[in-house]
Amino acid sequence: MILHMVFMFAILCIANAGDPNILTDFIAPNNTIDANYFTFTGMRQLVGGEYPTTFKALKVTMNEFPTLNGQSVSYVVLEFPDGSINPVHIHPRASELMFLVSGSLQVGFVDTSNTLYKQTLQIGDIFVFPKGLVHFQYNNDTKEPALAISAFGSANAGTQSIPTSVFNASIFEGILDASFHATRATVRRIEDGLKG
Predict the structure, then answer these.
(1) What pLDDT is recorded for position 7?
(2) b/e code 81-109 from CB counts within 10 Å (16+ = b)
(3) What is the pLDDT of residue 15?
(4) What is the pLDDT of residue 87?
(5) What value, to the nearest 5°, has the Cα angle with vertex 110 and ends 196 and 98?
(6) Which of 13, 50, 160, 185 has its C-alpha lying 20 to 30 A from 194's C-alpha?
(7) Whole-number pLDDT of residue 157
(8) pTM of whole model > 0.85?
(9) What are phi and psi of 147, to 5 degrees?
C-alpha cells in the first residue's frame, strides 16, 4: 500500500512539473521597484539593425529579464539569414509557439513514435513544437532572410542542442560508434566539425 502511494505521488509530481506557482502577483528583488522593473529594452537592437550573417536567437527568459521569474512565460526572436538553420534541439520545460513575421521557414518535429511532422511556413503562420520533442527550423531560401518570434510557457524553457549534446559531451566513444552504427573516424569527423 505504501509503495502504491509513493508511486502515485511520483506520478502527480511529474504531471505537475513546470514553473512553480507563486503566491504573490510577481517576484520582486526588493520593495523599491517601479515600472522599469517590468520593462525589457534588449530588443531595441532589432529596430533598424542589420541582419546577422548566421542564425541568431535573441532570448528574453528569466536569465535576461528577471521579472519573468514566476510568470511562466518567455520569448525569443529568431533571425534566419538566407540558407541558415536552427539545428535540431529540444526545450525540456515548455512548448514553443512560433509566429513567422517575414520570409519562409521549413520547420518540423519528431514525436516519440518517430513520426516527423514538417511544414513550410509562410508569413503570418503559427506552428507549435510540443514540449520536450526534437525539432528544427530551416530557412532554405537562398536570397531572403526570415524572422520569427517564439513564445514559451515557462520563464526558463531551456534549450538543449542535440548535435552539441551528443557529439561535444565527451560521451565514451564506443557508445557513439555503436549508437550510430558508424566508424570511429566518422564520429570524430562529426565531432571535429562541431568544434570548428
Answers:
(1) 44
(2) beebebebbbbebbbbebebeebbbbbbb
(3) 47
(4) 93
(5) 80
(6) 50
(7) 95
(8) no
(9) -135, 130
Q: Per the structure block, which three cell numbers stand in for 124?
A: 503570418
Look at the chain and count its residues.
196
- Blockwise average pLDDT, block size 10, the chain, 196 residues: 46 56 83 90 90 94 94 96 96 97 97 97 98 97 96 95 84 84 87 77
Amino acid at 168: N
Q: Which residue has the cell 509566429?
A: 99
